[in-house]
Amino acid sequence: MTGSDNGAVAIGIDFGTLSGRAVVASVADGRELASAEHVYEHGAIEESLPGSGVRLPRSWALQSPQDWVDVLKHAVPAALAAAGVSADQVVGVATDFTACTILPTTADGTPLCELDEYRDRPHAWPKLWKHHAAQGQADRINAVAAERGESWLPRYGGKISSEWAYAKGLQLLEEDPELYARADRWIEAADWIIWQLCGEETRNSCTAGYKGIVQDGQRPSREYLAALNPEFADFNAKMEHPLSALGDKAGGLTAQAAAWTGLNEGTVIAVGNVDAHVTAASAKAVGAGQMVAIMGTSTCHVVNGEELKEAQGMCGVVRDGITKGLWGYEAGQSGVGDIFAWFTKNGVPASYTEEAAKRGISIHEHLTELAAAQPVGAHGLVALDWHSGNRSVLVDHALHGAVLGLGLQTKPEEIYRALVEATAFGTRMIVETLVKAGVPIEEFVAAGGLLKNKWLMQTYADVLRMPITVLTSEQGPALGSAIHAAVAAGVYPDIHAASAAMGKVERNAYVPDEARADAYDRLYAVYEELHDHFGRGGSRALHTLNEIATEATK
Length: 554
Hints:
disordered N terminus; globular; 7-stranded mixed sheet; EC 2.7.1.16
């Protein structure tokens, strides 16, 4: 396909946990002309700081800003070249990011970790979304808010997560006050990358609402912050900035960023966004009642509603948070694909790996074949999918996973199956919680890397008792960003029109089997019992084990 055939295109850039991906898409119909991936040199920094080797405590997860810039330098030019299009055909660029991935910077946006005097200070580096070391601060944030009757707390299901901006900011203050004072800005990576592209600081309404506790145009009060810690009273000043709507133009590409990307200076740059929320556009799910589950290392669930409802344990409900004019609800599971990867790395005998290699398939494919051959419930197991904590609906990252029912006859594929089922049960818990709160869910749309496993997807349909629509693009967030870029560039009047033209889905790709669904209802009842016992006060065993491990590894 030649450049002249392609016509106008938009570029979407998706910054993930381990890599960044750029997609070149036709603005006429969303055809993906090419994509390119750049794997981060430093990946997720969880054990020690680059260069200095300073060891990180338990539950830390950081990233390097240079890795994000390298995506602009490598993935964007590579995608352009592969698509065979010229810079003149690019009408706009939009990005999305994991959230809350957040960093301290100077007033001009320089990350503190890039200053020589701070490179060996862990708190100078961006805290990745799965940094869970601020749980103690999150607990205090929630307790004080509940005591004071803060009006914003119910909008977040009654709990603010340790993954979000205020918990991580309070941890910075209390563990490295010098760096806290040096940080002029505390900014989401989603907004920082836009700063690098167009030379101007912006703040998007999505991350501000879901991760930065902005409700009805206001952040938590100075009095509330002072009640957490007197030195925290002016924390809002590090984030305060006018908010920009999703799909709006943030600015034009700077000369420096044009040199990085191979694009024209002045190319339209859209306001930043979150990977999950932007995917609603590529999944043609920008209306009310359409839940999108972006299933990868973790899973994020987003759905629009026409009315404001307060649902227990949600990550937040934000006006215009996904689509203008609607209330956007967010929930999520902190570990999904990560759990399966952990098990294949640590729980599978060498003989299984050797057999998979002999057959030329992955260990996941081998385990899936073995697990899929079993009847529902034959393993006698139920697992809790909390290996990376519980984001929804318990909002508690001091919890960890468990597998119950193990016997001497239990096989690896049976544990693997139980883990897959546990993640499906976790999603069902989220769906049922929203529905009970009065948020209609009429369609379940799946996106992300886990769609490649057809047995896993069928399991979700059976557990949920719902047909599943699938996003047919392998780069859902990047395509969603490209759709927002088309809106920012004025190609479409709004996200509804752009999504209808450029989105890619297959409806009813998976339909529940009634017999399996009945069998899963029995297993789910056990999961629900264990979920509430260990997660809602029946037992503090998992919390105590986490406390013991944290103390032992200090």
